[in-house]
From TrEMBL:
Gene3D superfamilies to which the protein is assigned, alphabetical: 3.10.50.40, Porin chaperone SurA, peptide-binding domain
Identification of the protein by name: Peptidylprolyl isomerase
The keyword Signal appears for this protein: yes
Keywords on record: Isomerase, Rotamase, Signal
Length: 462
C-alpha cells in the first residue's frame, strides 16, 4: 500500500484518493466537472477489468497534493504513487462487482444531499451554485451520482477487508518507537472543540399550513387526479418529484421510521394520511411489496423558509449549559443524549478532524465561525447558545466548548497518543489491505498507457 507521509497528519494516499470529491477545500472538490467554457483534454490511462482510470483523475489528485504541500517538496514519483492508488481503488470496485457488494440508493442519495447542501451553503445559496456550474441542482446531483456511488462502494470494500482491525497501547508504543527522532513531526497549535446542537422548531402555524396543503392534494387524488402529476407539480423532493414522486424499492430500516411505518400500513395503491418526518411532511402511496422490499411514491412539502423558532432550542441549551457548569452532567454525556448532530454527539460532542479522524483541529483548518468564537475563550469555557446554520441548511442553535488548546510542540507519546494511535491503526489497516491486494491483483486484467508502464500498478510491495 502506498503511504509516503512519515507520521501522519494524513492517512494513506489510498484514502486520500478514495475521498477525492468529498468536502475538503474548494468547489472543484464537487467532482462534477468544471463551469461552462473550460475544456480539458482527457483520456483513459489504465483499465482494471471493466474499470477505467482517466487522466483527469490523476491530475485532480496531483493538484490536491500540490496544494496540500503548500510549497514543500513532494516525492519525485508522486504521479506513479497516485496512479497506483487509483488502480487499487479500481480493483476494489472490480472485486465489489464480483462479490456482489452494493451500496443502497438511499445512502447515495443521502451523501448527494449532504454535499449539495454543504456547497450551496459555502457559495451562498443553491441558486448561486447552479449559476456557477450553469446547471440545476438536480443535474449536478445526477452528474455526481456515479462518483459518489463508487466512493461509497470503495469505502464499503475497505471496511469489509480491514474494518475490524484494532491496535493495542503496546502496538501504539512500538509504532512510536520506530519513528526516527529527527523525523518526529512538529505540530502547530491545535484545539479540541465540542458542540451541542439543537435544531430550531418550525412554528405551529407553518406546520398547519403545510399539512393543510397536503390534505388538499390528498383529497384531489382521492377524487381521481393523478398522484404522479401532482407530485411533479408540487413535491419539494427534487430527486423524486420529477419522477412523479417515485422512490423505488427499499428494504426495512432504510427509510426514516415515520415514513416506513406509514408506508407499510398501506395496501398497494393505498394513500397515507399526512406524515411528518425530519425532512418535512409526506403524502405516501404504496406501489408494491416484494418480500422484504417495498416501493412507494410520495409528495414532500416543507414549511416555508423563515418559519422556524429557535427560542425553545435556546432555552433547552441554556438549561443544559447550566447543568454542565454545575457538574451535574458531563459535556460528553449531554452531547450524546441531547445533540441533534448525531455525528459529533456520538463522539461526546467533539468535532472530528476530517483529515485523520482525530479530535485535534489545527487552528488554520478551523471553520472561521468556530475560530473567531474560541479565539478569546479559556480552556473549559462553554459559550451561551448561539445561532447556527448546519451543513445541510437547517436553522439551529449550539453551545461550543473549548476542551483543550495545545501549544506548538514536537510529537511525543504522552500528549499525542490519540494521533499516534490513529496513525498506528492506519498502518495496520494498510497492511491488511496490502495482503488482500496481493491475493487479488492476479485475478484481474490490467492494461496501462505506455507513459505509466513503469509505475508497477497493483504492486503492493512498492
Amino acid at each position: 500500500m502506498i503511504q509516503f507521509f512519515s507520521l501522519p497528519k494524513r492517512a494513506a494516499l489510498l484514502t486520500a484518493v478514495l475521498l477525492a470529491g468529498t468536502i475538503t477545500s474548494g468547489f472543484a472538490q464537487l467532482g462534477i466537472g468544471r463551469p461552462a467554457g473550460r475544456q480539458v483534454v482527457d483520456g483513459i490511462i489504465a483499465k482494471i477489468d471493466n474499470q477505467i482510470v482517466l487522466r483527469s483523475d490523476l491530475e485532480a489528485i496531483y493538484a490536491q497534493e500540490v496544494a496540500r504541500a503548500d510549497g514543500k517538496p513532494l516525492p519525485p514519483d508522486l504521479q506513479c504513487r497516485i496512479m497506483q492508488s487509483l488502480a487499487l481503488n479500481k480493483l476494489l470496485l472490480a472485486k465489489a462487482e464480483t462479490d456482489s457488494v452494493v451500496v443502497e440508493d438511499a445512502q447515495v442519495k443521502s451523501e448527494l444531499d449532504r454535499r449539495m447542501n454543504y456547497f450551496a451553503q459555502q457559495i451562498g445559496s443553491e441558486k448561486k451554485l447552479e449559476e456557477y456550474y450553469n446547471k440545476p441542482i438536480k443535474q449536478l446531483k445526477e452528474d455526481l451520482r456515479p462518483q459518489v456511488r463508487e466512493q461509497l462502494t470503495q469505502q464499503k470494500m475497505q471496511e469489509q477487508i480491514a474494518g475490524k482491525v484494532t491496535v493495542t497501547p503496546r502496538e501504539v508504543r512500538q509504532y512510536f518507537s520506530r519513528i526516527p527522532k529527527d523525523s518526529l513531526p512538529y505540530y502547530s497549535t491545535e484545539v479540541e472543540v465540542g458542540q451541542i446542537i439543537k435544531y430550531a422548531k418550525v412554528n405551529s402555524s407553518a406546520k398547519q399550513a403545510t399539512q393543510a396543503k397536503l390534505n388538499e392534494l390528498r383529497a384531489r387524488i382521492l377524487a381521481g387526479e393523478s398522484f404522479e402529476e401532482l407530485a411533479k407539480k408540487y413535491s419539494e423532493d427534487p430527486g423524486s418529484g420529477a419522477q412523479g414522486g417515485y422512490l423505488g424499492f427499499f428494504k426495512r430500516k432504510e427509510l426514516v421510521p415515520e415514513y416506513e411505518a406509514a408506508a407499510l400500513r398501506l395496501e398497494p395503491g393505498g394513500l397515507s394520511p399526512v406524515v411528518e418526518s425530519q425532512f418535512g411532511f409526506h403524502l405516501i402511496q404504496l406501489i408494491e411489496r416484494k418480500g422484504e422490499q417495498y416501493s412507494t411514491r410520495h409528495i414532500l412539502l416543507k414549511p416555508a423558509t423563515g418559519t422556524t423558532d429557535a427560542n425553545e432550542a435556546s432555552l433547552d441549551l441554556a438549561k443544559l449549559r447550566r447543568r454542565i457548569l454545575a457538574d451535574s452532567i458531563t459535556f460528553a454525556k449531554a452531547a450524546k443524549d441531547n445533540s441533534d448532530d448525531k455525528t459529533s454527539g456520538a463522539n461526546g460532542g467533539l468535532i472530528s478532524n476530517r483529515e485523520d479522524g482525530s479530535s485535534y483541529l489545527p487552528l488554520d483548518k478551523l471553520d472561521p465561525a468556530i475560530f473567531f468564537t474560541i479565539d478569546t475563550m479559556k480552556v473549559g469555557h462553554i459559550t451561551p447558545p448561539m445561532p447556527y446554520r448546519t451543513d445541510d441548511g437547517k436553522d439551529a442553535v449550539r453551545i461550543i466548548w473549548l476542551k483543550s488548546n495545545t501549544a506548538p510542540h514536537q510529537a511525543n507519546f504522552k500528549d499525542d497518543y490519540q494521533k499516534l494511535s490513529q496513525a498506528a491503526l492506519t498502518e495496520k489497516k494498510n497492511k491488511a489491505l496490502d495482503g488482500w491486494f496481493r491475493e487479488n491483483r492476479g485475478s484481474v486484467y490490467i492494461e496501462v498507457d505506455p507513459q505509466y508502464s513503469g509505475c508497477n500498478l497493483l504492486d503492493a510491495t512498492n
